[in-house]
Specification:
single chain; about 325 residues; alpha+beta; Beta Polymerase, domain 2; 2 domains; 5-stranded mixed β-sheet; two-stranded antiparallel ribbon
Length: about 325
Amino acid sequence: RKRIGGGASSKLERSPESDVLVRSNAKTSTAQRKAEGKKVDTKTRLGDFLVSQNRILAEKYMDDLERVAQLIPEASFYRELNTTNTKELPSILDKLGKRTEQYSERGYSGVIRDGVRATMFIPEADKNYVKIVKEMQKKGYKIAKTFAEDSKGNIILDKNGVPKMVDDIDVRFGDNAVRSGYEDVQMRFEKNGNLYELLILPGPNYLATKNKEHELVYENFRKYDTFVKDDGAKEIIKAIKKEYHKLTRALYTEAKHRDVSGANKSEQITFTQESVDTVDKLFKSLKTLFLGKFNAQPPSKRSKPSFKQTKTYENLDAVEQKLRKVIDLYSPVD
């Protein structure tokens, strides 16, 4: 470089006293972060306000359900079993995030329909829930309306292209029961523009069985959802569920009997040895199926050198171990 004067470099060569570009970007990034922070804060504040309002509504709802239970001899309501009577903000945001298409079609109340919720008990709920409805109507509640849906969850339109609306009551008994054997009446009331969900079960023992089955069986089977895209895996998983549902159906039947009869002791319900042997083979078949798919790939396209090191194997094994704990809890009696 050519020096000018007493050793001073040209202004064209000299580094700027401050990097304008970097400074500008830093300011922009800071401004963006602040703006994003404000958006998150606004969203959180609005969400917190909504949850806060729901808690106020829930208290009044609990009072009304308690009074209704006192008017129906066979019905019962326990506040201590209704501590989670509002949907919390993380759960609301998660549900909205997963159902963006539904949200655009149905709006907030069309997606979040359990912001305020409660559980009540009455024997033969499929027949007796009408007694609860009648008393709730006297207190200003009415059965909420919801979009009519086809078997795939799509909104049904009338001849004019307008969505059909139906009473928001789902009676899941008998042929309409869940495959696990679980039965309930799930419905929603509306009052002053607010939605109130009500789950009606036979009694506290049934609720305890529901919570246990949901945690140990239902939630773990949900983790198989990513694998059922494969037809072979779908059939194997279906067969595994069938064996577990033999157990859960018996547990639900026994819990209902205890609630109706008032029995203190429960019967000993277990897997049969035949079911355990069948499940063992099915777990092995599921891993063998995906091992075959792994081996069919050229070595250059394999994510790991060994199938046991892959995410697929790790996920399959994690679900299997969780489900095996259920077998340990209800192992066959020698």
